[in-house]
Amino acid sequence: MNGNDRSITGLVMLAHGMVHTYELSIPIFVSIWLAEFDSLQLAGLEIGVTQATLGVVVTAGYALFGLGALPGGIVVDRIGSRRLIAACLFGMAGSFLLLGAAPNLLVVTLALLAWGAAASVYHPAGLTLISKGVTERGTGFAYHGIAGNLGIGLGPLVTATLLLVMDWTTVALVLAVPAAVAGLYALRAEFDETAGTDDVATDGGDSRAGTGVDSFGEFLTASRQLFVGAFAIVFVVVIANGLFYRGVLTFLPDLLEGLPGFEPIALSAVAPGLDGGGRTINPERYFYAGLLLVGVAGQYVGGKLTDRLPPEYGIAAVFGVLAVLALAFLPVAALGIAPLLVFGALFGVTLFTAQPLYQAAVADHTPAGTRGLSYGYTYLGGFGVGALGGGLAGAILTYGDAGALFATLAGIALVASAFALLLIRRERRSATGA
């Protein structure tokens, strides 16, 4: 990688890690909120707090994370990535400050909505920056994904560790600090945003992209051009990935809590000289963080695969494996914690192998001039529509059981695999002129 590649990759790695640090720290708080809050006061109504209730609350924040990606993608095609990334980081810091001051579940909900709105612009901004500014694009995607998984794994791990010595509101306030510092760094970053593509004129390194849509009519035209092609198939894959991702992760710590081997351990029993004040170590939080952290390997493998084979082949295989793993999760859990640890590592690696593959598929099947719009739609589907996976999981767990949840997730994975096979067939027919 050249100097410009390294400058861009360094910034997006930092920002991507921050985004997912906050995103995946939220499920750590869910089990605490279930115990702390009895009701949600909303418009004069008192709503009892259940897994379904919290599923809706968390889904609302995660939905904005995806819904805001589309306008974010439009904006990044007009003004470039750096300023949007800085705004994202400062916005996330502010939302966690609000979360730390939350006196009730309504304010928690508002803080999650603020976080979702701020975080939503990152993926179209960051991925557009890689796809247009980095010459070794596959490697850039790989390092970007690795940084995201470090945030995904270390964020919950740091959160769980801080909860050993602090209450959850103080932990939220502490977590706000790194994003504010990263935002200051983003404002000072300098690079050429279009160095990696020769079909968009460069502008001497200014932050403006110089492309995109200027009116609602152009937006409709560009959108129609995207969805009459292969991108429409990729979009379905992205939605399925989002539903699976949210569906399995939102309540995973809560699901693990009731399994053998995950009983809480008194902090004083581990550190006899430390006054734990009745605090406990919750093993499920660390299993959850570990599962996410090993996803670094999956991101790296998926990113490297995009430089070696068409991504749709990898997508079909990965989601087929995820369907099998979803069906096997509970039977393996019944065997004990040791087999589950090995299984969890495999599950975490496979879950995150898919992301760089579908990100590369978007780049392969969209024009560079509307790449931000393309990634905006991608994360509208993955994190916006996909956010419904959290609400779906909460409803299934409230009115059904974990077996029904994992069977549903397996079905979603098979849908993604089937559409990847459809994309392969389409590309073969196009290559042969049939």
Provide the fold topology:
Elements: H1 3-36, E1 39-42, E2 45-48, H2 51-67, H3 69-79, H4 82-100, H5 105-119, H6 122-133, H7 137-162, H8 168-188, H9 216-227, H10 231-249, H11 252-257, E3 265-266, H12 267-270, E4 280-281, H13 283-293, H14 295-305, H15 311-333, H16 337-364, H17 371-385, H18 388-399, H19 402-432
Antiparallel strand pairs: 1-2, 3-4
Helix pairs in contact: 1-2, 1-4, 1-6, 1-7, 1-8, 2-5, 2-17, 2-18, 3-6, 3-17, 4-5, 4-8, 6-17, 7-13, 7-14, 7-16, 10-16, 10-17, 10-18, 10-19, 13-16, 14-16, 15-16, 15-19
Which structural traits does this protein have?
3% strand; mainly alpha; 434 residues; two-stranded antiparallel ribbon; two-stranded antiparallel sheet; Growth Hormone, Chain: A
